[in-house]
């Protein structure tokens, strides 16, 4: 077993692995939402390992509410610097700074069956990915896989972004959903880098799809039509809808609703805002419309998350 695999097998431990110093520790535990834990360790000089991921499918037919999926990742070779003002750091130690520290970065993401239901309550189960999300596979399992470029980029983004507060929450949720999609593709051994939509073979087409998603995230409380969104990113409306589903595995509307509801959980539970305030911030015309949408997508009433 490799060092990275050992870390993934023990990633729930709150202590540093094998005595490694913890440099950064961030976690979230919002009821009905993705539970995550991100840690950066100081890499010892002898450290050398391939970036590795693990997909855990926990299934218990007798207790379906206890079913869950878990993703764990271990990446190395990154650099960490406590001095945020370094700017154009050339990784050269000076009298005031020892230089960036090599790190081992460990991530874990926990998805309950209740949380995953939002992706499936209105679709037919047509492939293995859907069956895993719906816990129709009859046996638990864990699978180790190497990290593709797409997963590595998403993981690096979780560690290297400038968002704070509400925008950080929106950004992190979107990246976690990306990782879930990419990891499901790895588990069912589908090709991750091939698009069936020919227009996505052009980098500009893929860039427009990502721009559309970024616009939705930046305007999470300002509903927009697909026609208006297509104009914003200069892409044909039909291509935008097909391309978005191809790249992100969900429709534009479902993605937007999922992100709004995840952000609503954060505002209710972490920020202790009222249902009225959250409804207004997310652009709903009435509290009843917001409450109905929240219940539909999360299985919870908004008031259940109030502290």
Descriptive notes:
It contains 11 helices and 6 strands. It folds into 2 domains: 3-81 and 93-187, no CATH class; 198-305, Orthogonal Bundle (Arc Repressor Mutant, subunit A). The protein is α+β, with helices and mostly antiparallel strands. It is globular and about 55 Å long. The model has no long low-confidence stretch (mean pLDDT 83). The chain has a 6-stranded antiparallel β-sheet with strand order 1-2-5-4-3-6, with helices on both faces. β1 (22-28) and β2 (35-42) form a beta hairpin.
Summarize the SSE layout with pairings.
Elements: H1 3-9, E1 22-28, E2 35-42, E3 52-58, E4 68-80, E5 101-112, H2 113-116, H3 128-133, E6 141-146, H4 149-159, H5 165-187, H6 203-218, H7 226-232, H8 237-248, H9 252-269, H10 275-281, H11 287-298
Antiparallel strand pairs: 1-2, 2-5, 3-4, 3-6, 4-5
How many discrete domains?
2
Major sheet characteristics = 6 strands, antiparallel
Strand coverage percent: 15-25%
Number of helices: 11
Number of strands: 6
- Structural class comes to alpha+beta
Low-pLDDT runs of 5+ residues are: none
Give the radius of gyration. Answer: 20 Å
The topology string of helices and strands comes to HEEEEEHHEHHHHHHHH
Distance between the termini: 44 Å
């Amino acid at each position: 077993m490799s060092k990275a695999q050992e870390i993934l097998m023990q990633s729930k431990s709150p202590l540093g692995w094998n005595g490694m110093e913890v440099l950064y520790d961030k976690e979230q535990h919002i009821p009905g939402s993705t539970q995550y834990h991100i840690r950066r360790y100081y890499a010892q000089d002898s450290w050398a390992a391939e970036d590795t991921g693990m997909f855990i499918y926990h299934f218990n037919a007798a207790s379906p509410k206890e079913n869950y999926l878990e993703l764990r990742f271990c990446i190395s070779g990154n650099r960490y610097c406590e001095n945020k003002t370094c700017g154009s750091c050339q990784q050269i130690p000076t009298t005031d700074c020892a230089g960036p520290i090599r790190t081992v970065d460990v991530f874990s993401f926990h998805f309950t069956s209740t949380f995953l239901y939002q992706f499936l309550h209105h679709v037919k189960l047509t492939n293995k990915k859907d069956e895993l999300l719906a816990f129709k596979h009859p046996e638990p399992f864990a699978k180790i896989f190497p990290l593709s470029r797409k997963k590595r980029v998403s993981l690096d983004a979780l560690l290297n972004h400038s968002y704070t507060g509400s925008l950080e929450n929106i950004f992190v949720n979107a990246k976690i959903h990306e990782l879930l999609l990419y990891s499901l593709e790895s588990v069912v051994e589908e090709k991750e880098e091939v698009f069936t939509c020919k227009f996505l073979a052009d980098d500009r087409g893929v860039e427009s799809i990502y721009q559309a998603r970024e616009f939705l995230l930046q305007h999470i409380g300002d509903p927009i039509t697909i026609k208006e969104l297509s104009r914003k990113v200069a892409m044909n409306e039909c291509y935008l809808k097909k391309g978005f589903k191809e790249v992100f595995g969900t429709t534009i509307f479902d993605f937007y609703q999922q992100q709004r509801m995840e952000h609503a959980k954060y505002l209710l539970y972490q920020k202790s805002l009222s249902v009225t305030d959250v409804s207004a911030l997310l652009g709903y015309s009435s509290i009843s419309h917001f409450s109905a949408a929240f219940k539909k997508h999360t299985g919870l009433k908004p008031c259940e998350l109030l502290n």
